[in-house]
Amino acid sequence: MEITVSQAEGPKPITIMQVHGNIDSSSFEVFQKRAEELIHGGVHDLIIDLEHVPHMSSAGLRALNQIYNQLRGEKEDQQSVSKGVTSGAYKAPHLKLLAPSSRVAQTLKMSGFDMFLEIHPNLKSALASF
Amino acid sequence: MSWTTWRARRTFRGSLEQLAHLREFVNETAPQFGCNEEDTFAVELACDEAAANVFSHAFGTMPGEIQVELWRHDNTVTVQMKYHGGAFDPLQVPMPDLDVPLEERPIGGLGLYFMRQLMTEVKFEFDTVNGNVLTMHRLLIPESRG
Fold it and tell me: With bands split at pLDDT 50, 70 and 90, how would you rate the model's confidence at A64?
C-alpha cells in the first residue's frame, strides 16, 4: 500500500490522503496509522481519496471508524449526532471520502457508513464541502 | 451442461498476506461459474471476511493453512473453507447495530455481518476429520443464471 499526502490551497488547511492499494486485514493498520499520525500532527480536516483502492473489507471500515472518531469535533455532542444521523441531517464535518470505486461504494453503503460520511465524486466538490 | 461439473479448489497458507491471492482466486473462478459482477463481488468479499477471521484468530502462533473450494449447483454458488485450528463460534459475535452512530458501535462483528448479508446461507461446523468447515451459499441473482 502506498499513501501520498498533500495539502489543498485555500482559506482553511485541508489535507488529502491518497491511498493506493487494497484496504483489508493485512493492510488497514498502515492506513490507520498514517491517518493517526496526520491527526496527531495537527490535521483537523481530512479528505481520503479512495480512487485507487480497488477493494475494502470490514477491516478498512473499522479503520475509517477510528479515524472518524479522532476527527470528531468537541462541539459534536452525542445526542445531536445521533438525532442528525437518524434524520439524515448529520454528516461528519471533518472527514470526507473521495471517488470510491463502485465496489468500495457498495461496501460503504452495506455497512451504513455512507449515512455518516460524505462521499464526493471529485476533489473540487470535496474541498468545497468543508 | 450441468454446473455441478464446475469445481475449483486451492489451498492457502494461513497468513493475512494470502488474502489478496485468495481474492484473486475467487475473482478468477466465480465468473467461470457464471457469476456476474455483483455475484463475484459478493462471494469475493464474503471469502475475504471469512478468511481474514480465520487467519487472525484460528491459528495462534502455529502455522496453518486453509483449503478453499468453490462449486456451482443449479443456481447456487457454494464456497467451503476447511482448516484445522481454533473453532469459530459465531454466536459469540454480536451483530452490529447499523442504526446507531459509528462511535457507539462495537468494533468487530461487521465482517460476519457482511458474510451474512452477501451470502444466502453461512454455516459453521466442526468435525474431527475435517476440522473446521465453513460453508457459504449464494443464490445467484437472475441474470447470472446460465
Answer: very high
Nearest Cα to Cα of residue B58 among B110, B130, B132, B116: B132
Task: List chain A residues with CB under 8 Å of B111.
Answer: 57-59
Region A35-45 average pLDDT: 96
CA separation, residue B134 to residues B30, B44, B52 (Å): 18, 15, 13
User: Domain holding B35: CATH number?
Assistant: 3.30.565.10
Q: Which of A130, A3, A24 is nearest to B114 (CA)?
A: A24
Instruction: Give how many domains chain B has, as a whole number.
Output: 1
**Is A26's CB within 8 Å of B17's CB?**
yes
- Per-residue pLDDT for B33 more than 80? yes
Closest CA to B144 of B43, B58, B59, B45: B43
Domains along chain A?
A: 2-128 (3.30.750.24)
Nearest by CB to A25, which of B19, B101, B114?
B19
